[in-house]
Design goal:
This protein is α/β, with parallel strands linked by helices and 281 residues long. Helix content is 42%, strand content 16%. It contains 11 helices and 9 strands. Helix 5 packs across helix 6.
Amino acid sequence: MQEQEYTYLKHKILKLTGVDLACYKSEQMQRRLQAYLLRSGFPTWFALFRAIQNDPEAIGHLRDYLTINVSYFFRDPEKYKCLQGSILPELARGRLSLRVWSAGCSRGHEPYSLAILLNEVVGAYRPHQIIATDIDRSALEWAQAGGPYSAEEVAAVPAPWLERYFSAQEDGYWATRSLRRRITFCEHNLLAKSFVLPESGAGGYDLIVCRNVVIYFTNEGKDQLYQHLYDALRPGGVLFVGGTEIISKAHEIGLEAIEMSFYRRPLPQLKSPRTGPSGIR
């Protein structure tokens, strides 16, 4: 694909879908775009855009194709054990409730996993606030409905939790109504300048989970996103990223690594009281 053609595609797709391809790795995205055009049956991108420009459903299909939604519950079980055993109890110490953001939640595997852990570890009767966001509207609709999810998608859910939080139907597993009610789903572009803040209270989120989202981003896109996520954390709050993701500029942003895949926004350091020449305050 020629650079001029890709520049045109980036401009047109941003205008139609709101997805900014400038923040994605160009070689991978170009391959996906070429495959999409081939499947569409249109001879050129110009013909495709002309056909879908007034068709919200077709534009939605293009947006869905550009955003990858492959996941399952409790992805990377060892990381969730760390979240369960140390991160969540530490964050909940001395707090009545926690504010959590699942950023790039796809079809809901991640926020439902978080809601289950909060119920089991911190307490089902605390008024936790869980916000789950994604740019993909169809994925959000699936998540809001609570399913259906395949047997493969729920395979890592412990049997007692599967029975407690899901209902097995002919078409798959569905999250229970009580679990769905614990999460607020909304559309949001992670690469936008604005980000979602907690509805109640000030000071940002206790926990932000953004996993396996940035692997297609450029380095500039990653830096921009991680800075936004740092800004959305409260001091002492924790960012949970994917198992293979390392924030190379964590120190520059202001984050400190506490475990593999976990970064904290440090608490402000208290200034020591001033002393006189003799050390007397």
